[in-house]
Amino acid sequence: MTNLRMGLIGLGSMGRHHARVIRETDELELVAVADPAGDKFGVAGGLPVLPDVESLIAAGIDAATVAVPTINHEDVALKLAAAGVHTMVEKPIAHSAEAGRRVADAFDDAGLVGAVGYVERCNPALLELRRRMAEGALGEIYQISTSRQGPFPGRISDVGVVKDLATHDIDLTAWLAQSHYESVSAHVTHRSGRAHEDMVVAVGRLANGIIVNHQVNWLSPRKERQTVVTGERGAFIADTASGDLSFFANGTVPTEWDTIAAFRGVTEGDAIRYAIAKREPLKVEYEHFRDAILGRTSHYVTMSEGTHTLEVVEAVLESARSLQLSNFA
């Protein structure tokens, strides 16, 4: 079988990983790369570094990855759709939900695979968590809580922490719960002297009644990537930095110490950390994209899903601008 001819536009800090994984994925062949700023990480190999998306298309590609700055996603993606090229756009799908809808519609109208690169969905801990949730391991789900914190990344200049990091948590939460967001409110701060926000706390409710909260920032010296799902039978904790998944069960052993029992809604049961296979999430993501193009069963993130996530992101930012707390002074 002939390999899919892949093009990559954007050779920055994310593009270099895309180039490596495309080369490592069966049935994909990296045949063209482009970046108007050149190839500072030296990932092109023997390929010429093309100046723009038009040159990339002219190389005769079947599919492409877009890893340019967010503000350029719409323009590049629309040109790829018009040329009949299956495309995966790094998250978020575009700089605005309106632009995201235009991109999604263009790929739908052309009958092309349009994917969004929410690589956290391919994290081994979250894949196993979703499988166990679907099997009913928690019973009814009450809450999904995420925490994504760490130092400021020098690679980011065009968006704030909400569009760069919180977008991951919004996407994975809706995916885990299999439900869209119904409402959301948030607060942000600007502590680092940049134009964009660097910290956000958001709470919301999904259409199926699950409540959610997200704590995300670029201001912590401690790096944390954690998703907690709490339900009637206990709680799962997924550490997506390490790929570990743990389960804390509600116990069945009665507590005889009255002082402690008075403060417990449930009792403490067994705690388990699962042994799971840990594959690189980006490799799994490319296999999903490839399989979708080849007509196989696939679990890629659609552009429609990517647009919904961006709608929630915009609602978070709008809430942060408009939400006024009651004055209790």
UniProtKB/TrEMBL annotation:
GO molecular function: nucleotide binding
Limits of the Gfo/Idh/MocA-like oxidoreductase N-terminal domain: 4-118
Domain of life of the organism encoding this protein: Bacteria
Residue span(s) of domain GFO/IDH/MocA-like oxidoreductase: 127-236
Keywords: NAD
Protein name in the entry: Gfo/Idh/MocA family oxidoreductase
